[in-house]
Design goal:
By secondary structure, the chain is an alpha+beta fold. The protein has two domains: 99 residues, RNA-binding S4 domain (Structural Genomics Hypothetical 15.5 Kd Protein In mrcA-pckA Intergenic Region, Chain A, Roll), CATH 3.10.290.10; 41 residues. It is 36% helix and 21% strand. It contains six helices and nine strands, in the order E-E-H-E-H-H-E-E-E-E-E-H-E-H-H. A five-stranded antiparallel β-sheet has the order 5-4-7-8-9. The protein has a two-stranded antiparallel sheet with strand order 1-2. A hairpin with a 2-residue loop joins strand 7 and strand 8. Helix 2 crosses helix 3. The longest helix is centred in the last third of the chain and has 14 residues. It is elongated, with a radius of gyration of 20 Å.
Length: 141
């Protein structure tokens, strides 16, 4: 596939039978910013493949279901194609199918909305303006 003068191979027939390491695939599919972060998440037990914990060297195959915990978000994806290099953001839908339930995204959005109500210790009482803003945010949900 040619995008912007650069070639990105989603899958070639000779590489299809081999598979790709899960840490490399997670990085290439843009689920993690670096491969080292992906490896640390796998070692920390935040990544499961087909409901079982994995090691960074585990190979990904097409059709595998991967569960990833990224901060508070529990993301579930199904592998569409094997990739060996990082792809542009526009090509992500060709790499995996997002199976994350919409309720999960709503939960994260809700958490971010109410994060504004949290006050640091010693910050004092909210001002009248801050209180009105918090009440307005609560009414929207």
């Amino acid at each position: 596939m040619n995008i912007g003068g650069s070639e990105f191979y989603l899958r070639s027939d000779d590489m299809e039978s081999q598979g790709v390491r899960i840490d490399k695939w997670l990085w290439a599919a843009r689920l993690f910013k670096t491969r080292a972060i992906a490896t640390d998440a796998i070692k920390g037990g935040k990544v499961k493949m087909n409901d079982t914990p994995v090691k960074p060297s585990r190979e990904v195959k097409e059709g595998d279901i991967i569960q990833v915990q990224i901060e508070q978000l529990h993301k579930v994806v199904q592998v569409k194609s094997l990739i060996h290099n990082r792809v542009p953001a526009k090509m992500v839908p060709e790499v995996y199918t997002d199976l994350t339930p919409p309720e999960e995204y709503e939960r994260i959005e809700f958490m971010h909305a109410y994060k504004g109500e949290w006050r640091d210790r010693g910050a004092g009482r909210p001002t009248k303006k801050e209180r009105r803003m918090m009440e307005k945010m609560k009414d929207e949900f």
